[in-house]
């Protein structure tokens, strides 16, 4: 890797930051002594600080920030533009490290957070793609709340920061993407609900001050970022060519929801260019959309080394000073890395950026720290001051990790053998490279977990087991088929735990095909052929595979997808297999056949199909071809049925003003705004009530999806998700689920120039196999 290449590990640290990080880790590993958190305005320790306005908590935050900025020299201001923000000793401000991560638990990735003897681990929840499969918004928020509590507890003993660069809300557009595991999947609505839910869980406090932050979340990577390293095409130089329709219809909604619905404290701009412009240097994307349209209350941070990348790798500017200036002028507030610290002063002297722009940037950073209480003195005397090591890895937190895995696990196939009976299964063969893994279960952007329960441990806790890996690793060149088939032939039932790990799909590592890695397919097929009893396939992965061979194999009686299920993965897997938990997860992404990726380049960002060249489109919203499993697939051990008990009328009229153009000429669609969309206008909203009945003999949890197929105008989706609700029903129990539908918001589509339009004509509502048509007219 040349000196001009950015680091490809994790959240992409420059070498200087990485060296510091490694030193930090080595120090923390050997130190068990309690340390104190970083905070400013320690008036108790230095009474002279009370004279500073920025230390006066009685003042408005904006006044405090203005007071602080006014006291700084240019060099001091520049020190606050980078993730390792320099302290100002004369003002009682310590160094602060902005970079911490909390994708699915407090992570050791990033130099702001580390573990020690005092806090050796934190609760490691399932990787996001599996949590998303629960389709449970209250769960998303509950996990965020636990993660922020553990983060605050670690901050109080000097082990963590207050600013966390999570969640990742990019759309899982292509099944080969190595980081799809970090995301909530392919659907904009689900991704938006996850984004705002997790952010609220991280950020919201019990304080009466709604502006106060528990920790500061960050939605990344803005925007249209979903190519890491595919056939030599890298994220550092990739130019995502995205039309305005796809931008507003697919790529932007989760970020918009983060800011508007979640009130997120930060957005991270990405490495890639969008339509020729690096995202961290695009004033339209940063100042125009995030701040201007969405009104971000917080700061914009670069992905690590992004400013360096746009200069050295993308050659977007001729000089480093121009790169510094163009980023700050575009609306960037904080640079992960050291680039702005090195080149901003020269950019000011060259007249490329003025000091006012720097003041604006650091003001956004300081506002965030003020909202976190960083400038309010000793955190032990603040709202979360009582938290400490006792609040990390609590039994309740660990149980939530197990419950999240249970709710996310997706049952894809069951010909009747599941759930297994612990009384009739005397011996269980457990085979596969992921059967007894630990770290694989927690995916990437991980922290040290409280403890692990592997699939083998979970299963062995219920019945007598025999175990064989069958493959030395997931990419094995040789499978131990002979020993594996013998084990399966002697057992009452066989569980094969296979799939991927970070050597197959990861940051900076996209897949080139959808086949099971190594010799796993051969292992599965041969074991299934030789097995005496039922064979269950458990797939541990972020992305999907073409497992048509297993889907069609009658000897394989059950298939479960378990994502990367977190520290308690083995508990959840065993609970589902033995029927202690009735599976309720649904796929948050399409599982495509291998033939799909053979004809679709990963670099084509278009969502919609193109009949002129045979391009099939992407995701369930636009792709009409064959799938291995579809978005929303997932079955239960019981049978749920639906009936529509309240639906809108067949004709939904919209009232237009007398002089509206569509009164005198034929229109295909109407703007999704204006007087006809106001709440008092006729026909702007209706409800759909669905009666759900559990017709089986066991309790179950069911996700009710409400989809719509709009009229074929503006390249509209073939169908898209309007809403989803989780419901728990006892055996033979029924209940009514209610959806509120806003015609202008929910039934509109994005047109070719990015404007929302209501298609006139027939709309089809879908709930399971039920359909209801309605016609929107004027």
Automatic annotation (TrEMBL):
Organism: Brassica campestris
One of the GO biological process terms: arabinan catabolic process
InterPro entries: BXL (IPR044993), Fn3-like (IPR026891), GH (IPR017853), Glyco_hydro_3_C (IPR002772), Glyco_hydro_3_C_sf (IPR036881), Glyco_hydro_3_N (IPR001764), Glyco_hydro_3_N_sf (IPR036962), Ig-like_fold (IPR013783)
GO-annotated molecular function: alpha-L-arabinofuranosidase activity; xylan 1,4-beta-xylosidase activity
Protein family per UniProt: Belongs to the glycosyl hydrolase 3 family.
Highest taxon of the lineage: Eukaryota
GO CC aspect terms: apoplast
Signal peptide: 1-33
Principal location listed in the UniProt entry: secreted
Protein name: Fibronectin type III-like domain-containing protein
SUPFAM superfamilies with a match to the protein in the record: (Trans)glycosidases (SSF51445), Beta-D-glucan exohydrolase, C-terminal domain (SSF52279)
Keywords: Glycoprotein, Glycosidase, Hydrolase, Secreted, Signal
């Amino acid at each position: 890797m040349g000196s001009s290449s950015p680091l490809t590990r994790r959240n992409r640290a420059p070498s200087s930051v990485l060296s510091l990080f490694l030193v930090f880790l080595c120090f923390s590993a050997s130190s068990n002594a309690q340390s104190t958190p970083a905070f400013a305005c320690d008036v108790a320790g230095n009474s002279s600080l009370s004279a500073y306005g920025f230390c006066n908590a009685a003042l408005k935050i904006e006044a405090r920030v203005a007071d602080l900025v006014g006291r700084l020299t240019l060099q001091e201001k520049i020190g606050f533009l980078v993730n390792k923000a320099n302290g100002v000793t004369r003002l009682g401000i310590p160094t602060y490290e902005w970079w911490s991560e909390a994708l699915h638990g407090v992570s050791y990735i990033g130099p702001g957070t580390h573990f020690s003897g005092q806090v050796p681990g934190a609760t490691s929840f399932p990787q996001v793609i599996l949590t998303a499969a629960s389709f449970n918004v209250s769960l998303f928020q509950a996990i965020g709340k636990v993660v922020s509590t553990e983060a605050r507890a670690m901050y109080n003993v000097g082990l963590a920061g207050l600013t966390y660069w999570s969640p990742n809300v990019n759309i899982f557009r292509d099944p080969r993407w190595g980081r799809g595991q970090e995301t909530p999947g392919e659907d904009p609505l689900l991704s938006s609900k996850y984004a705002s839910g997790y952010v609220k869980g991280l950020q919201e406090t019990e304080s009466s001050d709604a502006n106060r932050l528990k920790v500061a979340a960050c939605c990344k990577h803005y925007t249209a970022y979903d190519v890491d390293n595919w056939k030599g095409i890298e994220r550092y130089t990739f130019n995502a060519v995205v039309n305005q329709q796809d931008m507003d219809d697919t790529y932007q909604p989760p970020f918009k929801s983060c800011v508007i619905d979640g009130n997120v404290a930060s957005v991270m701009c990405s490495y890639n260019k969008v339509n020729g412009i690096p995202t961290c240097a695009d004033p339209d994307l940063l100042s125009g959309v995030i701040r201007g349209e969405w009104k971000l209350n917080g700061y914009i941070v670069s992905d690590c080394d992004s400013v360096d990348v746009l200069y050295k790798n993308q050659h977007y500017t001729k000089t480093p000073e121009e790169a510094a200036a163009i980023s700050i002028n575009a609306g960037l507030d904080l640079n992960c890395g050291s680039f702005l610290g090195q080149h901003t002063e020269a950019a000011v002297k060259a007249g490329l950026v003025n000091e006012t722009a720097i003041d604006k940037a650091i003001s956004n950073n300081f506002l965030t720290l003020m909202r976190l209480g960083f400038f309010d003195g000793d955190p032990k005397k603040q709202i979360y001051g009582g938290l400490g090591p006792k609040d990390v890895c609590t039994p309740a937190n660990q149980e939530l990790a197990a419950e999240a895995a249970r709710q996310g696990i997706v049952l894809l196939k069951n010909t009747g053998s599941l759930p297994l009976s612990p009384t009739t299964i005397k011996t269980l063969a457990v085979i596969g490279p992921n059967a007894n893994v630990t770290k694989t279960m927690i995916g990437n952007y991980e922290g040290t977990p409280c403890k692990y329960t592997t699939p083998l441990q979970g299963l062995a806790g219920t019945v007598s087991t025999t175990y064989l890996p069958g493959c030395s690793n997931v990419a094995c060149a040789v499978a131990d088929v002979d020993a594996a088939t013998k084990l399966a032939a002697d057992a009452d039932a066989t569980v094969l735990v296979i799939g991927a790990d970070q050597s197959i799909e990861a940051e900076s590592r996209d897949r080139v095909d959808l086949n099971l890695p190594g010799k796993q397919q051969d292992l599965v097929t041969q074991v299934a052929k030789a097995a005496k009893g039922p064979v269950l396939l458990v797939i541990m992965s972020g992305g999907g595979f073409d497992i048509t061979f297993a889907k069609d194999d009658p000897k394989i009686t059950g298939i479960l997808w378990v994502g990367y299920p977190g520290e308690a993965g083995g508990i959840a897997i065993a609970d589902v297999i033995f029927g202690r938990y009735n599976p309720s997860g649904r796929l948050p992404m399409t599982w495509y056949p291998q033939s799909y990726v053979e004809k679709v380049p990963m670099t084509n960002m278009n969502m919609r199909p193109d009949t002129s060249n045979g391009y099939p489109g992407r995701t369930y919203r636009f792709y009409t071809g064959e799938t291995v499993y579809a978005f929303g697939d997932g079955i239960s051990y019981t049978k749920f049925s639906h009936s529509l008990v309240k639906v809108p009328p067949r004709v939904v009229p919209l009232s237009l003003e007398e002089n509206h153009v569509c009164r005198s000429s034929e229109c295909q669609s109407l703007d999704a705004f204006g007087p006809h969309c106001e709440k008092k206008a006729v026909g702007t909203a209706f409800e759909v009530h669905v009666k759900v009945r559990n017709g089986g003999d066991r309790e179950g949890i069911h996700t009710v999806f409400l989809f719509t197929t709009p009229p074929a105008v503006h390249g509209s989706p073939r169908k898209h998700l309007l809403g989803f609700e989780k419901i728990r029903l006892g055996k033979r129990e029924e209940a009514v689920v209610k959806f509120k539908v806003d015609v202008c918001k929910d039934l509109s589509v994005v047109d070719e120039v990015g404007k929302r339009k209501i298609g006139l004509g027939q709309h089809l509502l879908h709930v399971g196999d039920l359909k209801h048509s309605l016609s929107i007219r004027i």
